[in-house]
Amino acid sequence: MTEKSKLETQTLKTDWPEALAHCELCPRRCGVNRAAGETGYCRSGPTAQIFRYGAHQGEEPPLTGARGSGAVFFSRCTLRCRYCQNYPWSQQGEGEIYSVAELAGIFRELYAAGCHNWNLVSPTPWLPMISAALAQVRAAGLDLPVVYNTSGFERLETLRALENLVDVYLTDLRYTGEDAAHRGSDAAEYVKTARAALREMWRQVGPLRVNAEGLAVRGVITRVLILPGLAAEACASLEWLAREIGPAATVSVMAQYTPAHRARDSSPWNRAITRAEYDAVARTVERLGFTEGWIQDFGAGRSSGLAGFKMAPVKKQARLQRCSTAGRPAA
Q1: What domains can be seen in the chain, in order of their start residue?
Q2: What is the reported pTM?
Q3: What count of other Cβ atoms lies within 10 Å of the Cβ of residue 175?
Q4: Phi and psi at residue 325, in whole multiples of 5°?
Q5: Among 238, 234, 247, which Cα is nearest to 289's?
Q6: SS (H, E, C) 41-61
Q7: CA–CA separation, 51 vs 315, rounded Å?
Q8: C-alpha–C-alpha distance, residues 119 and 126, integer Å
Q9: 10 Å Cβ neighbour count for 132?
Q10: Which of 86, 92, 174, 175 is most open to solvent, judged by the fewest CB atoms within 10 Å of its CB?
Q11: What is the pLDDT of residues 165-193, one digit of tens each?
């Protein structure tokens, strides 16, 4: 066994603060000392950075419910997708710094607002801070399902350390070829990484389960975004999911692709998907027998109202420190 493969089999230390001293939280394993100010591929620093948070209505129905998903949009990302609609904060680093106590305050505020869950959007670089903040609010008797909202580009050792911390994994399968993954997201190893990650997520929490209100309490939701020129890869991802997990897996097929960021300057990324591409994926869903999940209508979501085009940052406020459970709507 090589030295590298030995390292791969080791379980990530669950002492999260130590992870910053030699950061290997994501598959890139940069090894930088973030605690000392060094930055790696994602450019994340030693303190959590957040662009926006609040009740979010843009997720799948079991997450959104009537009062919204309590989304926290973290800055930075382990990918550099040329079409990212969230690029102002995922790649350009917009957002503000929050201490662990302030992050715990955000979780308290979302709880008090009646949100159905704590939805961590692109959380991987910030897991040490998130873990500490969740420990604080839970010690105070507050609890909601934790949604891990990810591109799927996750390191197995990191996911294993999240067992019993995450309730719902909202993950992606975007590519089936190394070339497309490299061109689209600067991650040629995305396919094998995301598939291994999904298997681990399934091992931890299994199929989607909802409560009497139809709200997600545990399980995996797999998003498949139809990309222009890559409908065949979306179909292949669904084939893999049906074969490896089974048609009972909950899928969310997304047709909302809109050229953003660097996608506007290159083909085929600079166009919307076609009706033929959409129909090919929809037929595959039907043929494979998936019965749980959603298929977005053709043309849905193509507007300047997409998150990355109109979403404004939330400015830090002193009231974060004063949040309490008072006023939370009845379940």
Answers
A1: 16-316 (3.20.20.70)
A2: 0.89
A3: 26
A4: -85, -5
A5: 247
A6: CCCCCCCEEEEEEEEECCCCH
A7: 8
A8: 14
A9: 17
A10: 92
A11: 999 999 999 999 999 999 999 999 999 99
